[in-house]
Amino acid sequence: MRNQFREPIKLQYSNFHIDMTNSDHITSKQPVSRFLIGLMAVSAGITVANIYYNQPILKEIAADLGSTESQAGMVSMLSQIGYGLGLFFLTPLGDKINKKKLIISLQILLIAALLLVTFTHSIFQLWALSLLISMFSVSVQVIMPMAAGMDSENRGKNVGTIFTGVLIGILAARVFSGSIAEWLGWRYVYLISAGAVALATVMLQIKLPNVPTRFSGSYPQLLGSALQQIKRFPLLREVSLVGILQFGLFCSFWTTLTFYLSGEPFNFSSNIIGLFGLVAIAGALLAPVFGKRADKGGSKKVRFIALGLIVVSILLMISLPTSIPALVLAVFLLDMGAQAIQVTNVAMIYTLDESSHSRINTIYMTSFFTGGALGTLIGIYCWKYGGWLGVNLQMLLFALVISVLLLKEKRKRLANIEVVEIAKA
After folding, report:
1. Fold of 27-213
2. Gap between the terminal Cα atoms of the chain
3. Residues 41, 47, 48: CA angle, nearest 5 degrees
4. Measured between alpha carbons, how far is 230 from 215 in angstroms, rounded to an integer?
5. pTM given for the model
6. Which residue among 27, 110, 119, 256 is least packed, with the fewest CB closer than 10 Å?
7. Positions of CATH 1.20.1250.20 in the chain
8. pLDDT tens per residue across span 199-246
9. For 49-186, where are the alpha helices, taking DSSP H only?
10. Which residues, in sequence order, are bridge partners of residue 20?
11. Whole-angstrom Cα distance, residue 302 to residue 340?
12. The domain 229-425: what is its CATH number?
């Protein structure tokens, strides 16, 4: 029988070791102020938006810099690549370097890169700066685990609030950049963003606490340790697989929705299509509610309910493909379900070893954004060969695979409970 109280775990790596308590250990049980969580959420949204500003203004960029549309399109691709590189190579540093210092340093570098964009006169320069902007934007992925470790009692709620800020930043970025580019020019998008990031950075410098770190190894050992988290935690593997499919489904939908609404029978303009983003934001605002429910031990139930909302949304789009009210409702349900799964997933992985939060987050978020890239690619092919029905069937397949993973995890958990009860008897 296992000891009732948990003993420290020692991990040995070559020439260093980490002493830590069991994965449920949390340093702080003191509530974090709502203002600080709100500030972190707003800062995260302002920062992550920089990855998506380029998407609606690629034509303006191509015309201004004398490049082809395909060359301008590389800006968007390099932004995704840069974020992926930052996720793997920079965010693990949150376990080695003071998180506040890391966040502020990345924000300052981001401001510098944004300002340099305003002086760019070559598409090749913009390529390089887009890569750097997205790499430095991963400060968001240091903010999130920092919030998770600051208040164990409200972990899910706080993470849900910050993730809501992230999602609103992503969804609002396209509306903001399109409007600013139309009135002032595309360079002002980055200039205004630099000012917003600078203001957020000053506030974070004043308000963020200093959180001690425990990792004492070298940087290569840190990256190696990040990969070891996959083997170390079965929960991380299961949640990462769910995250890959959930974000893949989400990106398939949003990538192809523009194609669908701009063609027959709708023929909507980009402004009207952008309004669907507002519906998505409304769904995202409910994410903290699901995070709070996960804090009370209902993470498994929350994910099943959320998956049910996604399935209902897809069936609604299949059965009423040309109904605008049905599509609006479907967007709301789909977004609410997808964000509920994401917030719950993140809350679950932050119940694991606190001293490895940044490395654990690195593995999950790298998997998550890989799923988004794959989902986008698959969605485009499904649209090309199967139209809107093909996309919906692909999303339904992803949802069914998620349900299989959740049911498998539930059976495993019930089996473990059975074994414990037999052992007690």
Report:
1. Growth Hormone; Chain: A; (1.20.1250)
2. 12
3. 90
4. 18
5. 0.72
6. 119
7. 27-213, 229-425
8. 999 999 999 998 777 777 888 988 888 889 999 999 999 999 999 999
9. 58-65, 69-89, 99-117, 123-136, 140-150, 155-183
10. 9
11. 7
12. 1.20.1250.20
